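Chapter review: from sequence to fold.
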Amino acid sequence: MTDQPVTPMPRDGGWAAYTDHSRRLSALLHDERVRAEHQGATSRNGQAAVDQITYRLGAQRQHLQQLAVSMRLPEPHIGGIAPGPIPDPAEALRRAAAAADAADAAAENAHRRAAQPPLLPGLTPLARNALVYAAAAMLGTFASLLMFAVSPDTDLDRIPWQLVPWSLCGLPALAFFAGYLTISLVGQPRIGSGGTRSARAGGVICFVGMPILWFIFIASTRG
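The token string follows.
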């Protein structure tokens, strides 16, 4: 058997191919390393954002529970978080942050409204209470005048003395307690301080103002 001569590969061509493949492999490894580092950074940032929104939601839940207790309302029911149809984690986190901002704004609005009474919230406590007592006194005065108008003694040109105790004591007392009850029910803030019923001002308006109006009415009808 005759040995066949082996033709050697050109040294320059083989080395060039080897170096070309080496450069390509190095570039692929570099790109893969950069991609892995980018994915790792994205994952760490995403996890940090998830931890931040989770902590914020926990603080919101505690704040809502405390707000419900201070406002004397039932404790809010906060259910679990259902998975949403958003495939992009960054978009889901953005929407979660926007929803948390909206929840904070709603809670702040509820807190601000609860710090003011439902009745005439734009007035100071003294002005609001004075208006309530004045309205009750006007109704009481109207009732007193109506009682005098329908009394048989009035037709006889006489003062119905049996109605005087009601006009000077009974109706002013009813007007005072009606104003006091109205202020207690709808004139007090749910939370915070500053709630007052201005009992002294109400006493002056009802027990002094109503008799003065009654005497003015009697004097005008007898004058």
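Two observations follow directly from the output. The CA atoms of residues 37 and 43 lie 10 Å apart. The helical segments are 11-70, 89-114, 125-150, 152-155, 164-186, 199-222.
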